[in-house]
Amino acid sequence: MRMRAGVLLFIPILLFILIFAIIPAVGVIAVSFAGVHGPSLSMYRQTFAQQYLNAFEMTASLSLYGSLIAVVWGFAITWSLWRVQVPWLQKMLMAVSSTMANFAGLPLAVAFMATLGTSGILTVAINELFGVNLTALGWNIASFSGLLVAYLSFLTPLAVILLLPAVSSLQQEWEEAVFTLGAPLATYLRRIVLPIVFPSLVSTLALLFANAFSTYVTAYELAGSSVNLVPILIGYMVNGNVSMNLGLGDALAIEEMVVLGVAVLLYLIAQRRSLVGGTGRRARAA
Amino acid sequence: MLHKWVTRLILTLFIVTAAVPVVGLVIFSIDNEGLVQWQSYTSLIADPTFQQSLVRSLEISLLSVALTILMITPPVWYGFLYSPRMLRLVEALSFIPFVLPAVVLGLAYVQFFSNPPLDLAGTPTLLPFAFSLFGMPYYIQSVLNRLRLMEARQFHEAAQSLGSSAAASFWKVQFPLLLPGVLVGSVLVFSIGMGEFTITQLTTGGSFMTLPIYLQVNFTNNPLSGAAMAVIAMLIAIIGVFAALGTFSRKRNGGP
Hints:
The structure holds two protein chains of two kinds. By secondary structure, chain A is mainly α. Chain A folds into two domains: 8-40; 49-285, Orthogonal Bundle (MetI-like fold). Chain A is built from 13 helices and two strands, in the order ααββααααααααααα. In chain A, β1 (34-35) and β2 (38-39) form a beta hairpin. The longest helix of chain A has 40 residues, at 246-285. Residues 277-286 of chain A have low confidence and may be disordered. Chain B is an all-alpha fold. Chain B has one domain (48-152, 160-254): MetI-like (MetI-like fold), CATH 1.10.3720. Chain B is 82% helix and 2% strand. A two-stranded antiparallel ribbon of chain B has the order 1-2. In chain B, a hairpin with a 2-residue loop joins β1 and β2 (35-36). The radius of gyration of chain B is 22 Å and the shape is globular. Chains A and B meet through α1, α2, α4, α5 and α6 of A and α1, α3, α4, α5 and α6 of B.
């Protein structure tokens, strides 16, 4: 009897998820397939126009470059963080990383404008100190490369947070054993480090890609419509700068969710792999 | 050793690249042709629109926190003790925001909540629900972390064997023990509420001035004042995360 009553506790949260996530999302799917006479693919056909294809290509390459650089660079950082073994530094960098990765969206974008925008502090300082005009050299925060730099400022901390558990599971003794036996660094990396860390690298890459692909605020504030990105296009369909076209927005949103779904699936598969490896290691240690 | 210098160089580079935009923002906000000025801050604090947006953001964020605590704590606790399968379902559903990003959710809300009886688009009513949804994965994980650490089952069984009802055990024994996890999760939900821009802009059309919406408008119209505001917003986020991690680690060391 008590068990039954307890299950009632799940009703509010399940209703909440149903009303505020699942049903609206299903609504998006329904409208995206709606035509004048019954179901149709006309909205999807419209998304194959050059402008939207370009947007997908642009968003995908921005996300891919961003996540690849962030994973490699983030691995180097976690590796160093694990090597130096300074607990307070580790804790502080994790807290700062967590802030930058999850909670600083708009302020961070504004910080980039204030620092590296056309009249940003650093842009002006470099011009006055060294006589180098970054803008004249082609630097522009409202461009693909500008966005890439800004995206890295939250993708790298996210990579550090996600990679640290795997990297800190490496044991110092393994390294010593390998070098004592006379193997070169490359062998150590290829035979020991990579097999342990690889699943985490893949899952992190997938999650960063999804994160970059769905980023809106940073792109909106820094570039607006001057870089052709999918989330920005969807936002404009709602905000109606030109004309409110919700059906087309819905089709783009579904296509974006398919991309995100694939990335998250890859994340989950790789995550499971790294968990299996984790229990194996723990079992061996025990 | 070469190794040592390489690791130090990498960490230094990471800290410097992370600090550059933040330091740049702070300098930008106090710079007056090479002299320090605080006017951007003093006039911001005196600005009634800023005050109003701050109050609104606080209200909405606290409302999101209350909603999250009431709605999510009991089922997570109950699921942890009695119903792992339901807990797994809730945990899996809590990851929905990762495939349903803010822009898409905004687009969905504008359509779904534009007809009676749920004619809510254009009003701020939707915001606490959306923020709760975004905060859900963080909140559930911090409560679960606490449940795993505090030996919830033993305490619960002890209370019950001494004749306490399940509800009494929850309120008198479990909830106080659970509090650190609830607090950490609440701080994270609160931080999300104070910083959320996308859903707020898309569902209210930017007419409801929260802190982030005003930050965006203000930076466009008056960069100096906007930069000062961004510094304040960033401070709120940093304090929030440090508070959350601080409580958590202290409780982990000194917990039962």
